[in-house]
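Hi there, hope your week has been kind to you so far. Thanks so much in advance, here it is:
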Amino acid sequence: MKYFILAMLCVPNTVSVNNNPLEVNENSSVNRVYGLSTALRDFSGTLFFAYAEDELIGITESDLVLETLSSDGVWNSYEVDVDDANNTLSYDFTDLGFTKITASSVNASLTVEEIAKNYFVKVYPNSTTDKLIIASKNIKNSILYNINGQKVLETDRNELNVSQLPIGVYLLHTTNNQDQISTFKIIKN
């Protein structure tokens, strides 16, 4: 079984499959990522995720979790029922909304943990159309990722020119001289 199954899905939607892993914060998904042409909203029911053994890229089946990307660019992780005989993961959702779904290791989730506010780094304006200012005295570098976890910009300065980027949601990771990382959700208009 190599199909992504949405039980009782009644909205027009096209499901695409990408056989390349997603990478977020040096963590990687399996080699199967499903994308929806239209964000799914308020889905309630059992969702099944099928995979082939060779797509696990070394992840033990018992360590698999589902990862969904919400329409606002945030990855969420779910501990699932694993059917290793049929190579499927399943989870009973209530009011789920997402644009992409994949699986990863529970030890290397794509989910970005929210951390306490860092008063030593300020990023503005947010939202922006052209420039993003990173206010910090000891910034080492900053990397901007798209919602697919791909690096789109990197700088060691206190300013990023985002004018050429498509409208959307991005994640900015800043690293200071003590190798502390701060993460910001950035909206590009």
In short: Residues 122-188 form a domain with the Immunoglobulin-like fold (CATH 2.60.40.10). Residues 1-10, 115-119 have pLDDT under 50 and may be disordered. The chain is about 0% helix and 55% strand. Residues 39 and 99 are 5 Å apart (CA to CA).
